[in-house]
């Protein structure tokens, strides 16, 4: 008996629809899920009948971030760097639709997509800072795509915010009722034109990845190995405040 896929895919009128389908761990970015997602992105890029990709999800969470239980603190940051890089360099636009919780590294995945939209059920939070960590790798696309001043607030405080605020600060492009129009526009666009335009629109993100990804990956590992982070994670698992919370 084979395991059920973690990423389901089908094509809808020139749009490759990729659905994160691992609700048991809130669509966490395990090596297995990232492997399937990367394979699906590669297939979409190679298919001349596909104009763009739509990334969506099952369950009440779009993505909860890295799956540290499965992959450990040393592998997780590199896996996220690789996924963000693959989306940024894909020759076809990637649209994302979130209608559930987006947390930690999941915000890096969402921000890496070219046109993210979100529904009323979506909520967002960079939870790392409250655990003695930082949104190191996730910040790569976030600080390019969102307003840096607004992003700094949420990166530093760990506050949760809603779709209206995510749209206001530029983390999300639009509410999900704009999705049909966005996909219609992509279907009407030239493959060559889309590839060339995406190369333009991702230039700053690709530059930031090249210049900062390795340092941020190493920072993430150092923080996870610290005693303060160990206490923060332990407090979260025990559903109590860490000693620094006032």
UniProtKB/TrEMBL annotation:
<keyword id="KW-0456">Lyase</keyword>
<dbReference type="InterPro" id="IPR014748">
    <property type="entry name" value="Enoyl-CoA_hydra_C"/>
</dbReference>
<protein>
    <submittedName>
        <fullName>Methylglutaconyl-CoA hydratase</fullName>
        <ecNumber>4.2.1.18</ecNumber>
    </submittedName>
</protein>
<comment type="similarity">
    <text>Belongs to the enoyl-CoA hydratase/isomerase family.</text>
</comment>
<dbReference type="Pfam" id="PF00378">
    <property type="entry name" value="ECH_1"/>
</dbReference>
<dbReference type="GO" id="GO:0004490">
    <property type="term" value="F:methylglutaconyl-CoA hydratase activity"/>
</dbReference>
<dbReference type="InterPro" id="IPR029045">
    <property type="entry name" value="ClpP/crotonase-like_dom_sf"/>
</dbReference>
<dbReference type="InterPro" id="IPR001753">
    <property type="entry name" value="Enoyl-CoA_hydra/iso"/>
</dbReference>
<dbReference type="InterPro" id="IPR051683">
    <property type="entry name" value="Enoyl-CoA_Hydratase/Isomerase"/>
</dbReference>
């Amino acid at each position: 008996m084979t395991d059920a896929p973690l990423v389901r895919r089908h094509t809808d009128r020139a749009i490759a629809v990729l659905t994160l389908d691992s609700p048991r761990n809130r669509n966490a970015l395990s090596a297995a899920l990232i492997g399937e997602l990367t394979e699906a992105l590669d297939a979409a890029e190679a298919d001349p009948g596909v104009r763009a990709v739509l990334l969506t999800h099952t369950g009440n969470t779009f993505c909860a971030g890295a799956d540290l239980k499965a992959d450990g603190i040393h592998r997780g940051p590199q896996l996220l760097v690789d996924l963000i890089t693959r989306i940024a360099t894909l020759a076809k636009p990637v649209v994302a639709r979130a209608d559930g919780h987006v947390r930690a590294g999941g915000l890096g995945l969402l921000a890496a997509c070219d046109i993210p939209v979100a529904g009323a059920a979506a909520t967002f939070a960079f939870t790392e800072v409250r655990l003695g960590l930082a949104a190191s790798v996730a910040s790569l696309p976030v600080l390019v795509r969102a307003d840096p001043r607004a992003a700094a607030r949420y990166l530093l405080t760990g506050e949760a915010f809603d779709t209206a605020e995510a749209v206001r600060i530029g983390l999300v492009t639009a509410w999900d009722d704009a999705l049909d129009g966005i996909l219609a526009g992509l279907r009407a666009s030239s493959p060559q034109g889309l590839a060339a335009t995406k190369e333009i629109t991702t230039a700053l993100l690709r530059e930031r990845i090249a210049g900062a990804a390795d340092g941020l990956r190493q920072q993430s590992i150092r923080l996870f190995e610290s005693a303060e982070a160990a206490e923060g994670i332990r407090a979260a698992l025990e559903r109590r405040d860490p000693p620094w919370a006032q």
